[in-house]
Amino acid sequence: MHSTRPDTVAAEEPLEIRLAGTPLAVTMRTPGDDFDLVHGFLATEGVIRTSADIAGLRYCNSVDDTGRNTYNVVDVDLAPGVEAPDTALDRNFYTSSSCGVCGKASIDAIRTRTAFDVAADGTRLTLATLLALPDRLRAAQQVFDRTGGLHAAGLFTTEGELVALREDVGRHNAVDKVVGNAIREGRVPLAGHVLMVSGRSSFELTQKAAMAGVPVLAAVSAPSSLAVELAEEVGITLIGFLRGDGCNVYTRPERLLLP
């Protein structure tokens, strides 16, 4: 037996980020919170540290075949004194929705060093608070409820309060949107916060957490070996397989207060 009915699918469109008219990168993303995405992308790439490093940003007049503005190009003006990256060396101008580092042109360009001392962050949280985060993240995923096809990133306080949540077809985009929101509100470095992601914790997500000064990164799935190595190096508490009944703590377990 079969039936025919309409279904809602997650939107995916390209977003081109330009610096003073010069293309920097194209990322495949779910439209929405684009300015958060741009701020977060530039921050996690080490181009900016605060919102004051951006003098202005705007949608360009990128039109489709019907003459409609697609809102798929954002041009950024960096503030005086903020150095633009060398795009000829760093990027091939494309990142897919599944990988945020696949546009890098060299191995050296993959690693970006954080300006924040994450290891010195004295954040502590209880096990009960940590175990409650997956349900709180899932309850806030409104678009996922309609499509079943989006990743989520949520920023929480150590008391378990949801500060910001963003959804996107790309897990790295969801994190960039959360970080970008924090940049725009002047909350970076994100000391005393937990970043929770709905999928796995990869190297790129761990690096983005480090660039934002996040002391605790939690995921519902597994970390990669490079994610564990980077978390250990920069001082992030990395948690995987976080469910309501338990989790694995891979690095810096002293931040977790056990019963």
Name a few traits of the molecule.
259 residues, alpha/beta, Ubiquitin-like (UB roll), Cytidine Deaminase, domain 2, 2 domains, 6-stranded mixed sheet, 7 helices, 12 strands, globular
CATH H-tier superfamily of the largest domain? Cytidine Deaminase, domain 2
Indicate the structural class.
alpha/beta
What top-tier CATH class of the largest domain fits best? Alpha Beta
How many distinct domains?
Answer: 2
End-to-end distance? 52 Å
Q: Residue-averaged pLDDT, rounded?
A: 89
Give the biggest beta sheet: 6 strands, mixed
Q: Level of helix content?
A: 25-40%
Uncertain spans:
none
Strand order of the largest sheet: 7-6-8-9-10-11
Short description:
The protein is an alpha/beta fold. It is built from seven helices and twelve strands.
Q: Which helices and strands occur, and which strands form pairs?
A:
Layout lengths: L12 E7 L2 E8 L4 H11 L9 E6 L13 E6 L8 H4 L34 E2 H13 L2 H6 L3 E7 L4 E7 L2 H14 L8 E5 L5 H9 L4 E4 L5 H10 L2 E7 L2 E4 L6 E2 L2
Parallel strand pairs: 1-4, 5-12, 8-9, 9-10
Antiparallel strand pairs: 1-2, 3-4, 6-7, 6-8, 10-11
Helix pairs in contact: 1-5, 5-6, 6-7
